Amino acid sequence: MKKFSLLIITILVLMTIACNSKKETQTSGIDVTNLDTLISPKVDFYQYACGGWMLNNPLTGEYSRFGSFDKLAENNRKQLKDLIENMASKPTKTGTVEQKIGDIYNMAMDSIKLNQDGYVPVKSDLKYIASIKNKSELSKLIPELMLSGTDAYFTIYVGADPMSSSQNLLQTYQSGISLGQREYYLDKDEHTTNIRNKYKEHVTKIFELAGFSSEQAQKNMEAVLKIETRLATAAYDNVKLRDPYANYNKISIEEIQKLVPSIDWNTYFTTLGLKEVKEINASQKESLIAVENIITSELLDTQIAYIQWKLIDGAARYLSDDIYTQNFDFYGKTLSGKEEQSPRWKRAESTVSSILGEAVGQIYVKQYFPPKAKKRMLELVHNLQEVLGERIQASTWMSDETKTKAMEKLETFYIKVGYPDKWKDYSTLTIEKDTYFENIKRANRFEYAYMLNKVGKPVDKDEWQMTPQTVNAYYNPSTNEICFPAGILQYPFFDRNADDAFNYGAIGVVIGHEMTHGFDDQGRQYDKEGNLKDWWTAEDAKQFEERAKVMVDFFDSIQVAPNVYANGKLTLGENIADYGGLQISYQAFKKATKDKPLENKDNFTPEQRFFLSYANVWATNIRPEEILVLTKSDPHSLGKWRVNGALSHINAWYEAFTIKEGDPMFVSTNKRVSIW
Ligand SMILES: [Zn+2]
């Protein structure tokens, strides 16, 4: 299923398919079995705080990465499975949400039919793609396929106009390379070359499994590599994609027609069902120019093979076991180091949650989200908001002028907790009993219709970019909103029975993290209305840049694998957010307990428990392959460095664990970050 929202928002963690336990009530919240007391916190805090957890939660074959975050997500997944299976096992009335959820789940589970059908569900689409006779037909074919989920060359989405945030704008976005990251096509090191060679084998095998002769499959693979490499060469890297100005290029329809003349944009928009489109944000201009050059210079047959690949590649997860397995062997095993496939029910649950997310969420929150949790969360959010305000006011490097603007932005945060007040309407989505893949296409068309309907209309700030059952949180700069879905408001983030040291260290830092995104290197470029507009004095902006540079340099020097270093620029926003979250939440914790200080528990001071609770959120086991994948692609630092890298800059942490000069974890004060 396609996902649109991740194009702009800043999330807390990059989710992988996630696994389960019930927590005993703990008044300190700290589970001492998570610790590794054989090592000193002064030597490796992450190992000290999380070593026990990592030993007790070894990676199973299904995962390339598994952390306490994923453990919670896994628990949610089991709850959702029960809810969904309950619907799927009963007779339902056609057109009801129960029928849609039940039928799609049952189709995903029906391995006998999936295997009988083989590649038949994609056969007619492949034939249709092959039937085009000249390049002018691409103007209709590309959008037609995009609507049902195939992104060839580039994609389209609708989101707030970055310069006029209350209005929705049609926007293009670079896409069309199946390896996702441009570096996989371009880097010449041994690891990447090996992946590229395996990818070539994979593309060839998939074509064969989809009914092509070996000779044709080989030829098609060469066509795919040729076009994808050209797209990759022009694509922006992940650092440039984080620069909102570099990705803003609002132009008229006449202008995009000049930029990419090979596509008849009138036909393109008509196929999308859009009338009277006047302007478009042609993001990543160079990528679009590359599309133009590819269409004009490559033979039609080469382009047909590429488009066919994009279709089968997107469909592979919804087809027979031989195709699914080949797909897993490449993307799961080779790329990420996984050893075995997830059980079928998990894949089925994830499809349902993706297609009918809010329908499932509505049932989920009724059963699992107590109203008390929302009230407690709102209190925490307000406490942290107040403290961030105090920290801004007390800042020594910012002028009063910029401070006033920063305070206005902070005060206008749009806060969302738990679940949306109004739910998405799925009445126009139909789920029929033909094939699983046919329904995936229907769901994509439904999502596109829903999204395209927003073109030219005001932004609906009450719409949620995540479902309530999601274990994550986000900040959206264009609406200046922070959102904490019900799914994250559980242990190890939130424990109603634990004291403030625990909850401020865990969910408190998450709240502070999302708030800080409004003021990180990217978020600070948007004003309180969510417009891309500079509200900083030149001197304050310079101060910010200098201070942020300390963070960039610090992370650039971290070796994550032999001869592989973290990318300080790519992870800057997230590292600032972790740092800011810790600073704000720690101060809010001290403020909240000022009149009634907490006692030592489990031989730890309240301050120590705050930092242990923070670290435990990021306890993770990860495969070496996945470290390389995430270092290329993920704007978040790896779990180990979200702990050791972030805490090195927090003075209160040095005090809590009496870390002194000469200790391996010690970073001298002039190398510590000081921003928020
Ligand atoms: Zn974040």
From TrEMBL:
SUPFAM superfamilies: Metalloproteases ('zincins'), catalytic domain (SSF55486)
Limits of the Peptidase M13 C-terminal domain: 472-673
Known EC number: 3.4.24.-
Major enzyme class: hydrolase
CDD domains linked to this entry: M13
Cofactor: Zn(2+)
GO molecular function annotations of the record: metal ion binding; metalloendopeptidase activity
GO cellular component: plasma membrane
GO biological process terms, semicolon-separated: protein processing
Peptidase M13 N-terminal domain segment(s): 41-420
UniProt KW keywords: Hydrolase, Metal-binding, Metalloprotease, Protease, Zinc
Family stated for the protein in its record: Belongs to the peptidase M13 family.
Protein name in UniProt: Neutral endopeptidase
Organism listed in the record: termite gut metagenome
Lineage of source species: unclassified sequences, metagenomes, organismal metagenomes
